[in-house]
Amino acid sequence: MLLPLAAPALPLDEAGKYVAGAYVVFMVLLVVYVAIMAAKLGRIERELREVAAIAERNKGGQAAPGREAEEAAPRV
Amino acid sequence: MYGKGLKPLSIATVAMLALALSLVFFYAPLDADQGFIQKIFYVHVPLAIVALTGFIVGGVFAIAHLRTNNRKWDAYSYVAIHISVIFGVAVLITGAIWAKASWGHWWVWDEPTLVSFLIVFLLYATYYPFRYAIEDRDRQARYASVFAVTAGAFVPLNFMAVRMAQSLVHPRTFATAEGGMPGEMMLAFLCMLVAIGLLWTTLVKFELTAKSASGQVKRLRRALDAPTGGSSSRIAPEVS
Question: Does pTM top 0.80 for this prediction?
Answer without folding.
Answer: yes
